[in-house]
Amino acid sequence: MRIGPNGFDGRRIRLGIIGVGDVAHRDYLPEIHRLADLAEVVAVAGRSGARAKATAERYGFPVWHCGYQALLEVDEVDAVVNLTPWPMHAEVVAAALRAGKHVYSEKPLAPSAALHSPERAADGPRRVSDSCAHRPARPRYVDLGGKFPHP
């Protein structure tokens, strides 16, 4: 997926999943196939290399990493889904934006309002969405100056 001057070009979004724990396995990964027309998972990352590898093998994802930093270096990843434990959300969101990735993050984006400013971490046009899978939610998009498709 590329975002040009006229917006989304129609290619599938290449996702990197950061965090392969309970929330990922219970709420997201079993349903990720529903996005097949819009997105594909190209890499996963977790604190445990063994768990990231097992997740990649279980769901047929092509690449796995131990640690989110390695995933953020992958050029083929357009956007990340941040499913890490909430105390890590601000750190991961900021790092992903600095790496030039779009971000979807479980709530909260940060443990306090003082740390809840991911837009300050990005120099380029990126978008952040946060939501919570545990209740009906309307994702909140933070426009960082670029265009990002959303159904």
Model description:
It is a single chain. This protein has 151 residues and is α/β, with parallel strands linked by helices. The chain has a domain at 13-111 and 126-131: NAD(P)-binding Rossmann-like Domain (Rossmann fold). It is 22% helix and 27% strand. The strands form 2 sheets. Strands 5-4-3-6-7-8-9 form a 7-stranded mixed β-sheet, sandwiched between helices. Strands 1-2 form a two-stranded antiparallel ribbon. β1 (3-4) and β2 (7-8) form a beta hairpin. The longest helix is centred in the middle third of the chain and has 11 residues, at 49-59. The chain is globular and about 35 Å long.
Cα-atom radius of gyration: 14 Å
Number of helices: 4
Overall structural class, as computed from helix and strand content, comes to: alpha/beta
Strand proportion, as a percent range, falls in 25-35%
CATH evolutionary superfamily of the domain at 13-111 and 126-131: NAD(P)-binding Rossmann-like Domain
Helix content: 10-25%
SSE run: EEEHEHEHEHEEE
Q: What is the β-strand count?
A: 9
CATH top-level class of the domain at 13-111 and 126-131: Alpha Beta
Trace the largest sheet across and list its strands.
5-4-3-6-7-8-9
